[in-house]
Amino acid sequence: MRLAVTLSFESTLVIRAVARLPRADDYVLLRAQTGTEGDVKSAETAADVIKALGRGREFAVDIRDLARGIEQLASLDFDAVALAGGPRSLVLLAFVAAALRGAKIYVVPEYAADPFDATALAAAFKLTCLTPAKLRVLAEADGPADEVARRLGIDSSTAYRHLEDLAERDLVRVEGSRSKTYRTDTVIRTLAKMFLQRSTQHRY
Questions:
Q1: What domain range includes position 9?
Q2: Same domain assignment for residues 100 and 172
Q3: Please, are residues 15 and 49 in contact by the beta-carbon 8 Å criterion?
Q4: What are the pLDDT digits (tens) for 177-196?
């Protein structure tokens, strides 16, 4: 796994957090480039983390120009990102870049015991292009297609077709091969409901 990590000035917290994440083969330490004296401090933090991990490389992201920053992050090759600190612009850009490339996203709270997986939040980007019918199915995607259909009051073949499409988009997991059961993350179901409410409100 190639793990990108956003950096603050506090190397101890980052080292502790990274130790709790799945072990990576390579680390890319993302630090903000601001054109201020903070650049020196963030470079020192990156050096400290690389020394503690025994490997890795730093990558300066120019957050003075958000378009340039996202282009820089898009050029990187990583499988997961740990949002462990740094300027808010850097954290936001790293989240967007990870979401667009389909990478795992971990949030590292400064004073919590463990990082948590926030990858499901990236589904918000995928939900924007779903029809209301698919959003309704996604909001209820928990069980076999006929159960989902019954809860929604639609034909089971329609529910099945939507669920299979949602599975192809990686929004729904399929369990079992013969009698399929469909599951999705509670965060994704909540997002689907919010998108539905928003589309209803904008209709009037």
A1: 2-117
A2: no
A3: yes
A4: 788 999 999 999 999 999 99
